[in-house]
Amino acid sequence: MVKLLLIGALAAAANAQNPQFEVASVKANKVPNSDGAFSISAERLTAHNTFLGVLIMRAYHIDQSQFPKLSDRLLDRYDVDAKADHPVTRTEMLQMLQKLLADRFRLAFHWETKEVEGYALVTAKGGPKLRPMKTLRRRNV
Questions:
Q1: Pick from 45, 55, 34: nearest CA to 105
Q2: How far apart are the first and last CA of the chain?
Q3: pLDDT digit string, tens, across residues 107-134
Q4: Residue 73, phi-psi category: left (phi > 0), alpha (psi -120 to 50), beta (remainder)
Q5: Which pairs from 9-17 meet CB under 8 Å and 24+ separation?
Q6: pLDDT value, residue 131
Q7: To 10 degrees, what angle do helices 90-105 and 52-60 make?
Q8: CA gap 60, 23 in Å, rounded
Q9: pLDDT at residue 70, rounded to an integer
Q10: In the sheet where 37-40 sits, what is the strand order?
């Protein structure tokens, strides 16, 4: 009896670390010129006519500039309806979406850090020098 409880506790801990949807449906959407929709609740994730690239961006909190190159595959649209077996946080829901993308699309993902040149907008010594704009009076011409 003790062994069964321990195995059950280990399985629950593994599921907590690697959450997945209880049930999920992913279907290609071929409807042209239809608006896409994406929503997350405590127990359900739905995406209607959503680009695969958008699903990846949502799942991993990245923007389009972080993709090395947009392939035609990322422009395919899908309908996703997935349900968790219990209420989860938004972070857990997005982790479950990551696992779903890996399982269904064989998505392999890695992070890479690059140094790039850029500018930083900083406050000048002594504080900001901005002043409120004065109201302009119109002149009759």
A1: 55
A2: 94
A3: 887 778 888 898 988 888 888 877 787 7
A4: alpha
A5: none
A6: 79
A7: 140
A8: 21
A9: 61
A10: 23-28, 77-83, 44-51, 37-40
Q: Could you tell me how many residues make up the chain?
A: 141
| SS3 (DSSP) at 23 | strand
Give the model's confidence band at 105: pLDDT under 50 very low, under 70 low, under 90 confident, else very high.
Answer: very high
Q: Is the pLDDT of residue 6 over 60?
A: no
Alpha-carbon distance of 110 to 107, in angstroms, equals 10
Q: Model's pTM, two decimal places?
A: 0.66
The C-alpha atoms of residue 111 and residue 101 are separated, in whole angstroms, by 16
Asked whether the beta carbons of 90 and 41 are under 8 A apart, the reply is: no
d(CA 37, CA 47): 5
pLDDT of residue 102: 93
Secondary structure of residue 74 in the 3-state scheme: helix
